[in-house]
Amino acid sequence: MLYNFVIDCNRLKHRGPDWSGLFQHGDFYLAHQRLAIIDPASGDQPLFNEDQAIVVTVNGEIYNHEELRKRLPNHKFRTGSDCDVISHLYEEYGENFVDMLDGMFSFVLLDTRDNSFIVARDAIGITSLYIGWGLDGSVWISSELKGLNDDCEHFKCFPPGHIYSSKSGGLRRWYNPLWFSEAIPSTPYDPLALRRAFEKAVIKRLMTDVPFGVLLSGGLDSSLVAAVTARHLAGTQAARQWGAHLHSFCVGLENSPDLKAAREVADYLGTIHHEFHFTVQDGIDAIEDVIYHVETYDVTTIRASTPMFLLARKIKALGVKMVISGEGSDEIFGGYLYFHKAPNKEELHGETCRKIKALHQYDCLRANKATSAWGLEARVPFLDKDFINVAMAIDPEWKMIKPGRIEKWVLRKAFDDEEHPYLPKHILYRQKEQFSDGVGYSWIDGLKAHAELHVHDKMMQNAEHIFPHNTPTTKEAYYYRMIFERFFPQNSARLTVPGGASVACSTAKAVEWDASWSNNLDPSGRAALGVHLSAYEQQAALASAGVVPPEIIDNLPRMMKVGAPGVAIQS
Fold first, then answer.
1. Considering the entire predicted model, what is its pTM?
2. Taking all residues of the chain, what is their mean pLDDT, rounded to a whole number?
């Protein structure tokens, strides 16, 4: 048992190359591969309370740890690690302390006094986590599938916002925000309140004892992350340790839309910018490694994970261990192109709720695992609990896309400051690009062409018999599925990957918004370009009547410089 456990732990060494910790108590084993971000000198894990009766292993960051320490005046902390508060909070509050944590985290806590344990995962599932059961009655917890798939009879994704207690033997949800019920909110839109909430979310993520930077694609979300970080970095502990010059990082095919836009934003903000190029062949060569590390066969996730995987390797080689990224905004604000077809505010709000609830299977999974593959940590301020509460309380009528309001208008308007601009207007109102498209349109076309070489028509004809669950409907999907099944052949593994109809990253429910979409289930954003283009043509027609704001009029020529779905485009 111990031998198998150690072998499985070594499979996760990439996630934490700085320290390997192992604790045994009877039949309980806790292991940790540490990526040291806070208190690198003394924060090695597992962590303990004063008498070492409570043992914790944690993946993540607790941003409010200093505030929580003040609420525990009678406790003595052994390290300066942000995660050191967890065992002490358990001593004071029992299992009901998890909602007090502000951060991204997955942890296992063992109470050796009664041999009970709890497992918890952060609200949205920013950190990855799995739970499995062995035939011998053992319970396994791992940050990745590969840490338990060979030893468990059954395993599954540990649900976000939940806690598992050995005392009850079951899961319960600890995260219960108002938006979770999908009831329609009615709070009026307050741009300054939204701006302040996001700035607070970014500022708290500047907590670091190691070099860091921002991922910058030149799109709205990453540009706002970079702009707010650059504006507030000076005077922070991070700036005192590593300097006030912010580093930014971008990846793409040569002459891709993202590279050009990111370069412009970096120049505007004055960041030290690092631009990396990859070729379609570089990406294709990495596909097997990407699927092994990201542990999915979802087409969109693999397309977007590959450039991020390649970028993370370059960033880590520069000595950087943490980056701040822009995931989550499109889900919260209805930013995907298909939201142009939302029939009413009720449908739009319901779809944003569904998208946020599923993030742990898509963008969070990508951001966490594509970076962790190289020992790099990604932080995501748009998924801050307090920010989500503010953003999801806004009356969704304000998020509806209509003449004068492009996608994510409420976010763009919140940072449209004439006196102290955060970004140039044309960047602030830049058209949405999915990451897998923005790194270079020929990237997706190259993947499809490569799959054609490896998957022939007869294989597709029998796909439903070979893969009865989540049957691949394209050769690209079939190609990814073959690789995934080679690494993770268990039925439990294939069940961890979501499926169902989707167009341009929609849920299956949103496909119902347009009857024509059922015949064009392309996960790329290009599947909805016709919708997007017609919307801007309508805005152009209304511009002369003064219906469309000037900032959108200025961008109409560039917004309309797009091509038909399925065509390689250069802007």
1. 0.91
2. 89
